[in-house]
Amino acid sequence: MGEPKAPLTDKLGDIMLWGFIRSRKLAYWLIILLTALSIAGSFLPHPTLLDTQFYDWQKNNPILAKILAALYLEDFYQSWLYLSVVILLLLNTFFCTWDQIVRVKGLFRWYAQEGQVPGYAREVRGRILPAQLPEILAKLGYQTKVTGDGLLAQKGKLGALGMIIFHGSFLVIAIGAFLYTTVSYEGRMVIAEGQRLTESRENYVALNESLWGHYLHQGFEIQLDKFSADFYPAKTADNFQSRVTILEQGEPVTKGLVKEGRFFRYRGAAFFADWHGFVPKVQIFDHRQKKLLSGFIILDNNHEIHKDTVYPPGSNREVRLELIPESKPDAEGGLSRVSNLPKSPALGIDILEEGKLIAKGWVRLGEKKRIPLLGDKGEYLEIMFPELRQWGSYIITNNAGTEVLFWGSWLGIAGLVLFYSQRYLRIHCKLKTGDNGAAILEIYGCSNRDKFRLAEEIEAIGSALDFPQRIAGKDEQY
Amino acid sequence: MTNLDIIAFWVAVTFYVISSCLFALAFSFEKEKWQTTAVWAAGLGLIPHSAAIIARWISVGHGPYIYAYEVASSDTWFAVVFFLVLQYKHPKLRNLGLFIMPASFLLIGYGVMKLREIEPYPESFTTYWLIVHVFFAKIAYGSAITAAALAGTYLLRKSGWSRGNRLLSKMPDSTSLDRLSYQFITLAFIAIAIMIVAGSIWAYKAWGRYWGWDPLETWSLVSWLVYGTYLHRRITGRWEGKKAAWLAIGALLVLVFAIFGIPYVYSSLHNAYLK
Fold first, then answer.
1. Of A46, A261, A272, the CB nearest to B127
2. Chain B within 8 Å of A270 (Cβ-Cβ)?
3. In what order do the strands lie in the sheet with A305-310?
4. In terms of CB atoms within 10 Å, which of A123, A465, B131, B145 comes out highest?
């Protein structure tokens, strides 16, 4: 019979899995794996609410798209693979941090006893002048404590706390990210000047809700009072600004400004400037003064081409509208675009019946015009364009984890700065009796990161005490 | 570019070329005087370089952080300043110019190839968070290039290839080079962390999200993780010497790719400005 197998425990009596999960080596490999997966993911597009790039990529790479879909890796950074590594790293961080808390608790209680002060060490023999030690150590910035067999000295305790804060911040960020992805929504809402819409699911033109995102809808109303934008001639508009009013039970409660780089927040919902367009008021009557269309029409804006098609109720006609912000009549009696600046807006109108064009014309802002029906003698339509407003669209987000993420990130940086600005160094000066009966003073050191600095300090102490001989010690960490 | 901007820029480039050549010659022929002249040339180049940056700042109305030319030029400025301050405090580290000055010259050359007409930039760029984001990106770049130069010098020393070189033998011992490289990487790691956080706050204010896995964002995270790996191994695994030096050089390549390489490989939100 061979030797009995050792139980699956480490020296602390914990099961080996526990030791594996909290090991620093695992942390190292997980960081490398996370780095590799992050790089791999960067080559893949991700499905987003407002971008069609992902769907175009799927069409162009059907085989890879199918493989990724089969493996549930389409949204790579939200996939089981990526999240598993993140969760494992978080678990590892949690247990490593727990171990550190236990150690650091000891630092504040001075419980560094013999055998518990492993670390970079130098043993020094020579004449002993214990009375000088506290003074030398105090000059080097150490707090000292006399023990039964010598002296303990330490400085930079906050540095040891810094690493715990840094690692702890990952857990805070993870909680924030969990809330961010499970209790959140992101949607797009289009509001015309003067229009008032309720913040509820049905009023979004596109909406992504996370698992519990629907709990965040508030039911307040938002009204767009005034929209303005800067227009670059022949280019897209920029610098959108919207003045909005928030209403609760029909009563205004606050006013705000939404512009690029400056969002407006109300009860957790943040409104971001997104896009814009025009809302002409259009009135069309037939020659018998029967109304075909009357009202404000929100025109779509596709790369500054402002168009839409309206199907008047109770009619088999369709009305195609196109707004030209600055126009001039062309040689064929139509309109040509001069620029995107809304200097002299004109509305082109095509009316179709069962798919066949029956009337075509255009009208400037404030004008009233008659356009004849093609093929029908004597019949005409009366078109009016009395008013032009604008619409703004807004990305509205509400994320329960926003604040947690924000503070978690800064907490991490604070921990990192603390760790590197306050170097934890511990020195243990211990009296011993040598083989020849002479007294020996051993000086051990322990640092959480800077053994060079520690070596310099021990050398400084040794030099001040005039030690004749130095012996290189072991190099471990606490 | 204004006339002053152009003239000052090319004067700076000329000085940097002279400095790079002098560093190489000083190292090859072991002439200490040439090395001192190379440092002076770098310092003199910094004056017109600063003038070029300020002149452009005034003419375009924003700091040197929107277009590839501006980013490359200001990153170079930070790298040269880092080097000059370092060699002033530690004259033994002058040989680092052998790595830093040619790298600076190449980077500024890349920037000038990317020079183009100034276009109006979005309102979302007018935020203090962008300034914090960019400032720490430059600190990160400056410290990362210095760390890599120190690591390169360490490897050069260890390789024995230039054994007996008088200038190299005057540099700090290998242990000190290794330690200094570690310290600069620590600074780079913290600066990248602040850069990422400030950038994500800016993104939240501009687009309503902290993180969108845009390739540049992802590669910033990758750079941070690579530097994190270095520090983690250094603190917990006692990675020192050659392994650490190679990792410091590799990490710089990742960072350079994250800043300048992304627009050529990916379609990114940042491409409109950085390409």
1. A261
2. yes
3. A300-302, A305-310, A317-324, A346-353, A356-364
4. B145
